[in-house]
Write a structure and sequence with these properties.
The chain is α+β, with helices and mostly antiparallel strands. It is about 30% helix and about 20% strand. A hairpin with a 5-residue loop joins strand 8 and strand 9. The chain starts with 10 loop residues before the first helix and ends in a 14-residue tail after the last strand.
Length: about 180
């Protein structure tokens, strides 16, 4: 009797491979969704950081008061413009991939922060309180509070803008807010 050599895979082997793939997907999807949600916070923070740095740089370059104006809360849209003339320098719409990110500002109700010709935080031209801090988060309907990676942007008196994680409390950790 000659032995026949089997080629390919059996139905049992194919079903085992499919079952393993399904189990791996079931385990990976929640982690992937959490990562995507947190990347929206990071994207909005990066955008706002770039806008604040642009406002500061343009104030120094033009030697005029330049303001970073936040769209109506809780949106992440913003405009950088010359404070006195109102000439728009750059604008970012809120709905560019980060529409569900919530921005809370300190002091409450502030809408703008201005920079003078030396790059320092300056009083706003309209005499309103300047924004000192931006806290970015997601609503609980998108991701549970314990799973979000909140970020904070702080604008110092000297004009420096720092991005940090308000949940980090370890001394010496570079992500810790000052």
């Amino acid at each position: 009797m000659a032995l026949r050599r089997q080629r390919g895979v059996s139905i049992i082997e194919a079903m085992i491979v499919v079952a393993i793939i399904v189990v791996l997907l079931v385990l990976a999807v929640p982690v992937g969704l959490e990562w995507l949600a947190n990347s929206r916070i990071r994207s909005a923070s990066d955008s706002m950081l770039a806008g604040l740095q642009l406002a500061r740089a343009e104030a120094v370059r033009r030697n005029v008061l330049v303001e970073f104006v936040l769209d109506a809360a809780p949106a992440t849209g913003w405009t950088v413009r010359a404070a006195v003339s109102g000439a728009e320098i750059q604008k970012r719409a809120a709905g560019e991939g980060t529409s569900d990110v919530i921005v809370a500002v300190t002091p409450n109700g502030a809408t703008r922060v201005s920079f003078d010709g030396l790059g320092r935080r300056a009083p706003n031209a309209d005499a309103s309180n300047p924004i000192e801090r931006f806290d970015l988060d997601l609503p609980a309907t998108v991701l549970a509070a314990e799973k979000t990676r909140n970020l904070r942007l702080q604008v110092g008196l000297g004009g420096q803008v720092v991005m940090c994680d308000p949940n980090v409390t370890t001394v010496g950790d570079v992500r810790k807010c000052p």
